[in-house]
Design goal:
Strand content of chain A: 15-25%
CATH topology of one domain in chain B: Dna Ligase, domain 1
CATH class of one domain in chain B: Alpha Beta
CATH topology of chain A: TIM Barrel
Number of helices of chain B: 15
CATH superfamily of chain A: Protein of unknown function UPF0759
Strand content of chain B: 15-25%
CATH class of chain A: Alpha Beta
Structural class of chain B: alpha+beta
Largest sheet of chain A: 8 strands, parallel, barrel
Strand order of the largest sheet of chain A: 1-2-3-4-5-6-7-8
Oligomer: heterodimer
Helix content of chain B: 25-40%
Helix content of chain A: 25-40%
CATH superfamily of one domain in chain B: DNA polymerase, Y-family, little finger domain
Number of strands of chain A: 8
Number of domains of chain A: 1
Number of strands of chain B: 13
Structural class of chain A: alpha/beta
Strand order of the largest sheet of chain B: 8-7-1-6-5-9
Distance between the termini of chain A: 16 Å
Number of helices of chain A: 10
Shape of chain A: globular
Largest sheet of chain B: 6 strands, mixed
Radius of gyration of chain B: 23 Å
Order of helices and strands of chain B: EHEEHHEHEEHHEHEHHHHHEEHEEHEH
Largest interface: A-B, 22 and 23 residues
C-alpha cells in the first residue's frame, strides 16, 4: 500500500512479473530444481500477488484453459492479460472476430482481471489510420479494464492522454532504455482507477536485436529501483490501485528485481 | 534431473499447393489440383483447400477430381521444386535446433527446442519467429504448435488447420485431449477405429477412461500404447533427418487399365527398383511390403507380406511383393493402378555377422545393386534398370527455382 490514491485513500499496489512459466527460472534458482510447469503458478503465488499473462499474446485465450489456470491461484491473486498479437502486431480484416474470441477467452477471470494490456508495436505510429484502428479496438474492448502501452514516441501528446482519460483507459508507464523514438517514461495517469507500470530493463544493445534473450536481459540495481520510489508515489497519488510488472525475465532477473522493489517500497531496501 | 521437453511442430497445409502459389501468385485463391495431367488415369498428388471443400482428395483419380471441381486448375507435380522449398524451410528451422525430424517434401517437421531457451528465449517465441521467417523468406505460412511431446504437438496442429498456432502447456495434455474426437489421435486408423466405434468410444477421453486390462481384452498388444497415447504420453524422440518410420510409397497408374500379367509385373518391378533404391539411400530395411490394387470399377484390395529380418534388396522386396500381389490379384477386372508401400522400417545394421549367413548368390545380388546405385547416382536414375522393368517415366521437372 502506497500513500495517496483517488479521494485521499491509500493506493493498493500489486507487484509481479510478465509471465511466470519460464524453464529458465528453474535453472536460475527462482523455482526449486525439477519444478514442473504445472506447479509454477502455485510457487509464484507465494511470492507475488499478480501476474501479467503473456502467453495470451502468442495464442488466443481459451476459456477452459484460463479457468483451469485461475483455479490454481489463491482467491486474492489478480491477473492482467496481454491482448493477442492478431489485434496488435499482426492485424488483419478479421480482427473484430478476434476481439470477440478474446473477450470469451478471458471471461473466466471475472473480477480477478486487473487489466487487458494492449501493447502496440514499435512501428505503430500516430497516423490517422492507426488512430482510427485504436479507437475501434478500444470500442471493441468497452466495459473491460484496459491499459495501453505505446512503443512509438509520436503518441506522447496531450490529446492522446485526454482521449484515454475520457475513455477511462490506463496509459502504461514504461521503464525502457533511453533510445530515440521510444515512448518516454511519464507519470501521466489517465485512469483514476488504475496505474500500470512495466519494467522492461535498460539493455540498449539488445533492445532492437530481435532476440528476446538479449532485449530483456537486464538487472536493475537497488539504486535504479530506488529512484522509482518518487515516481511511484506520484502515480499512487493519482490512482486508487496500481500494478507493477517486471519484464526482464532473462535469468530470473524479473522476479529478483520485483522482490528487490518490494523491499524498497516497504522501506526495507 | 527431470526436464520437460519442448517440441515444436510445423506444418504447411497442402505443401505442394503452397509452393506452386509462391511460384505463381496468380494461382492464389484459385482451386488447384496437382496431378500429372497427361495421364488419363493419373491420381491427385495434392489439392488446395478450395478443391478439398469441393470433394477432391489425395489419391483420387484425376478425371473424378476434375468432375467434382470443374473450375480447378490442374498442375503437373514438380517434386524437385517442393524438395527445394522444403530444404529452404529446413534451413531456417535448423538455426534454432539440430534436432529436426521431417518428411521429404511435405512441409511437415518436428523440432526439439528443449534447453535452447538460454539462447533463443521461450519456445513459443521460437515458434513465432520461425513462422515469421518462413512466411517472409519463402512466402509460405506454416501452422506451428508447441507441446511437451510429438503426439500432442501433432494433434494440436490438426485442430488449427490450415493456419494458426496452438500451445499445450506441460501438464495439460490429458485435459486437452479428452474432449477431442478419437480419429484425431495419430496412429489410430481403420479396424481399430471401427472397433472403438462399436464400443461407443468416440472421444479420446473415453478411451483414456479405460484401464490397460480393459484395453488388453479388445486391442491386445496395442493396449499399452493406446492407454498412454490417450493420456498424452509419448516418449518418442525427435529423430534428426527424414522421419525414421516414414514408409516408402510409390504408385503406378496404367494407361489404359489392364489385366495383362506381364504389364502389371513390369510396373511392379519398376516400383520395386524405386523403393529399393530409396531404402538403401536412407540406410533402411523394410520388414513389410504392401500391395494396393485399384480396379477399374473403383474397388481396391490391399495385401501385405512381412518378414522378420528387414530387406532393402530389390530381390528380397520382389519376393515379398510377388507374394502380396498373388494374394491381392484374384479378380479378372482390369487394374487401374498398383501401389507399393514398404513400412516397418529399421536401420540397416552396419555390423557384420560373425559367421557369414548369406549365400554366394545373395552377396552377388548385393554387389550388383550397389554397382547399379553408384551408376544411377553418377549418371541418372534412368541409365540402368533390370530387364523386367517397364520403360521409366520422364525425369522430374527441375524448372522455376523460386527458393534460394
Amino acid at each position: 500500500m502506497l500513500p495517496g490514491g483517488g479521494g485521499g485513500r491509500g493506493c493498493s499496489v500489486l507487484l509481479g512479473t510478465c509471465g511466470y512459466s519460464y524453464t529458465e527460472w528453474v535453472d536460475s534458482g527462482f523455482y526449486p530444481p525439477s519444478t514442473r510447469t504445472a506447479d509454477m503458478l502455485e510457487l509464484y503465488c507465494r511470492v507475488f500477488s499478480t501476474v501479467e499473462l503473456n502467453y495470451t499474446w502468442y495464442q488466443m485465450a481459451r476459456a477452459e484453459a484460463v479457468a483451469r489456470m485461475a483455479a490454481k491461484a489463491p482467491g486474492h491473486f489478480r491477473f492482467s492479460a496481454k491482448l493477442t498479437r492478431t489485434m496488435t502486431h499482426e492485424r488483419d480484416a478479421e480482427w473484430p472476430k478476434q476481439v470477440q474470441l478474446y473477450r470469451e477467452g478471458i471471461a473466466p477471470l471475472k473480477d480477478r482481471l486487473v487489466a487487458i494490456l494492449v501493447q502496440l508495436p514499435p512501428d505503430f505510429d500516430r497516423t490517422m489510420e492507426n488512430r482510427r484502428y485504436l479507437a475501434a479496438l478500444l470500442d471493441g474492448l468497452q466495459d473491460l479494464p484496459v491499459a495501453v502501452e505505446f512503443r512509438h514516441g509520436s503518441w506522447a501528446t496531450d490529446s492522446v492522454f485526454k482521449e484515454l482519460e475520457r475513455r477511462k483507459v490506463t496509459l502504461v508507464t514504461v521503464d525502457t532504455p533511453q533510445l530515440p523514438g521510444l515512448f518516454p517514461t511519464l507519470d501521466v495517469v489517465t485512469n483514476p482507477a488504475l496505474f500500470y507500470v512495466r519494467f522492461h530493463g535498460r539493455n540498449m544493445g539488445g533492445w532492437r536485436s530481435g532476440n528476446m534473450q538479449k532485449k530483456f536481459d537486464y538487472d536493475y540495481s537497488g539504486e535504479e529501483l530506488g529512484e522509482w520510489r518518487l515516481m511511484l508515489d506520484r502515480l499512487a497519488h493519482q490512482a486508487e490501485r496500481g500494478v507493477i510488472y517486471f519484464n526482464n525475465h532473462v535469468r530470473a532477473q524479473a522476479p529478483r528485481n520485483g522482490q528487490r522493489l518490494q523491499k524498497i517500497l516497504a522501506g526495507l531496501g | 534431473m527431470y526436464r520437460e521437453r519442448s517440441i515444436l511442430h510445423f506444418n504447411v497445409a497442402d505443401f505442394a499447393v503452397a509452393v506452386e502459389r509462391v511460384a505463381d501468385s496468380s494461382l492464389a485463391r484459385r482451386p488447384l489440383i496437382i496431378a500429372p495431367p497427361a495421364a488419363a488415369r493419373s491420381v491427385v498428388f495434392d489439392m488446395s483447400e478450395e478443391a478439398y471443400q469441393a470433394g477432391v482428395q489425395k489419391g483420387m483419380f484425376l478425371n473424378q477430381a476434375t468432375r467434382l471441381c470443374r473450375e480447378a486448375t490442374v498442375l503437373q507435380p514438380r517434386v524437385e521444386l517442393y524438395r527445394r522449398a522444403m530444404a529452404g524451410f529446413l534451413k531456417r528451422v535448423q538455426y534454432y535446433s539440430p534436432q529436426v525430424e521431417h518428411g521429404v517434401e511435405d512441409g511437415h517437421l518436428f523440432v526439439d527446442v528443449t534447453g535452447t531457451h538460454r539462447l533463443f528465449g521461450p519456445a513459443q517465441d521460437v515458434g513465432l519467429r520461425v513462422r515469421r521467417e518462413v512466411r517472409d523468406g519463402l512466402g509460405i505460412n506454416p501452422i506451428w504448435t508447441l507441446a511437451g511431446n510429438k503426439l500432442v504437438a501433432k494433434v494440436s496442429s490438426r485442430l488449427v488447420k490450415p493456419v494458426g498456432e496452438y500451445i499445450v502447456a506441460p501438464g495439460e495434455e490429458e485435459v486437452f485431449l479428452a474432449p477431442l474426437q478419437i480419429g484425431l489421435l495419430p496412429g489410430v486408423y481403420g479396424k481399430e477405429l471401427r472397433t472403438m466405434g462399436e464400443l461407443q468410444i468416440s472421444t479420446i477421453g473415453q478411451l483414456a477412461g479405460l484401464s490397460p486390462r480393459q484395453l488388453m481384452v479388445v486391442f491386445g498388444s496395442r493396449a499399452s500404447w493406446l492407454h498412454g497415447a490417450s493420456r498424452g504420453h509419448d516418449d518418442s524422440m525427435v529423430m534428426g533427418g527424414v522421419q525414421e518410420a516414414m514408409p516408402v510409397d510409390h504408385e503406378h497408374c496404367f494407361t489404359p487399365d489392364t489385366n495383362d500379367r506381364q504389364e502389371v509385373e513390369a510396373a511392379l518391378a519398376t516400383l520395386i527398383a524405386r523403393v529399393g533404391s530409396e531404402l538403401r539411400a536412407r540406410g533402411k530395411a523394410a520388414r513389410r511390403v504392401g500391395i494396393w490394387l485399384r480396379y477399374s470399377d473403383g474397388n481396391h484390395v490391399v495385401r501385405q507380406a512381412s518378414v522378420k529380418e528387414g530387406t532393402c534388396s530389390d530381390f528380397g522386396l520382389r519376393r515379398l511383393a510377388m507374394d502380396a500381389l498373388q494374394r491381392a490379384w484374384l479378380r479378372r477386372t482390369r487394374l487401374r493402378s498398383i501401389r507399393l508401400v514398404c513400412d516397418r522400417l529399421h536401420r540397416q545394421s552396419p555390423q557384420l555377422t560373425l559367421f557369414p549367413e548369406t549365400s554366394v548368390e545373395t552377396r552377388r545380388q548385393e554387389k550388383l545393386l550397389g554397382a547399379m546405385d553408384a551408376i544411377r547416382g553418377r549418371y541418372g536414375k534412368r541409365v540402368i534398370a533390370l530387364g523386367r522393368q517397364c520403360p521409366d517415366e520422364p525425369e522430374p521437372d527441375n524448372t522455376d527455382v523460386v527458393f534460394h
